[in-house]
Amino acid sequence: MTEVQKRLIQLRTALNSAKKGAETFAAKHPRALTASVVGTLSCFAVTAFGIAPNAPDAAALPKRTIVETLAAPDIEAQLDELSAYSIGLTRSEATRSSDTPDSLLRRAGAFDPAAAAFLRSEPAARRIFQGRAGRLVHVTADSSGKVQKIVARFPAEKSEQQGSHFTRLSIERDGSQFTARTETVPLQTQIALGSGSIRSSLFAATDDAKIPDSIASQMADMFSGDIDFHRELRKGDRFSVVYETLTADGEPVSWDGGAGRLLAGEFTNNGKTYSAVYFKDSATGKASFYGFDGQSKRRSFLASPMEFSRVTSGFAMRFHPIHKTWRQHNGTDYGAPTGTAVRTVGDGVVDIAGWQNGFGNVVHVRHSGDRTTVYAHLSKIDVKKGQRIEQGQRIGAVGATGWATGPHLHFEFRVGGRHMDPRIIAKASEAVTLPGYAKAQFQQTVASIKTQLAVAETMDGVTAAE
């Protein structure tokens, strides 16, 4: 045995002994080990450098192979567990006027005669197929088509909750039986933006932009003192709006009143731009539309006794459809379906509420300044003589009573007994002013709304919710 080999055996024995000592030390003193690692490694590097020239060929050193067997997952057990899990698929379907429980479930991918029978027999469930079509119904069924759950939403039943709440109907399977539960839940609001341009009419433009009709009507009211929407609209006029939409469980409300309040609008008519914002006085609780300059858009008299409708006969000479002679028409006729709400154009007291010759069912309202408004041919009267009413309050509904060839509202404005053009009176009437203490709060509202309107203006023909 050579001297070199003897030295290698001694070195290997020393290293093994050092390794065992290090493992024992590490177990007893883990923190001290960290401090000594750097010094140990540096010394080892020097030592390795010193003996490297005398070390044998690395290929001659012993080698060790480690083989580790990994446990394979139990695929069969996983498949058994997966097959035991019932997958429920939920699908939303809009009701149709011709729907039956079977046809609705079939479109939703559910084939369940028991569920269909329950929908036919349960009074609460039958509401799904009553009223207007287009109501969203969510059906959850398992892989075999058996219904597990049905959820539908409706307007709140109580009149005082309509517009602020909705009714949720939940039908759930429990074995072979079904249970139905209804609950009244508050609606949530979202902010929506939209814009469009006039090509033929206001409602055609808002339909193209997917803006609800109720918002279009509010916009017509907002700018009624600036623009005559019956006569002054021009092709190419543009508008932008910021408004509230109502949601039920995060979904847009599909029934009437699904849109909330118009918050702000901008309308460019014949090259001139008008802007307005909805502002509520926190002190009095009263709200109105105001221009960005703080001037109220609300005047003592509204331009129209209806939210928005078609003028069939203006304040001018006309050929009378019943008497067949040319006569001065001392009012404005608005064509609208029977039952359409009629509102008072200003604050006042009811002077007459009943039947009056050719006017049929008629309401006379006395206002300040010796002014009177007349609402004729009503199908229904909702106020009484002597009752004090506020601007915008419903007083009746459109009809065809008295001398009328079809359903419409005949509206008159009288000053000191003389007939005046209602539109001229509305534009000339005094504006409601913004209280001085509310101006700071108003300016903050305007600053916020201007940013939203700027975004809405870029969205020609589309709407978006925030």
UniProtKB/TrEMBL annotation:
Q: Which residues form a coiled coil?
A: none
Please list the cofactors this protein needs.
Answer: Zn(2+)
Report the residue ranges that make up the M23ase beta-sheet core domain in this protein. 328-422
Read off the InterPro entries from this record: Cell_wall_metabolism_enzyme (IPR050570), Dup_hybrid_motif (IPR011055), M23ase_b-sheet_dom (IPR016047)
Going by the UniProt record, its keywords in alphabetical order are: Hydrolase, Metal-binding, Metalloprotease, Protease, Zinc
What Gene3D superfamilies does UniProt report for this protein, alphabetically?
3.10.450.350, Glucose Permease (Domain IIA)
What is the name attached to this protein's record? Answer: Peptidoglycan DD-metalloendopeptidase family protein
Q: Which organism is it from?
A: Pelomonas dachongensis
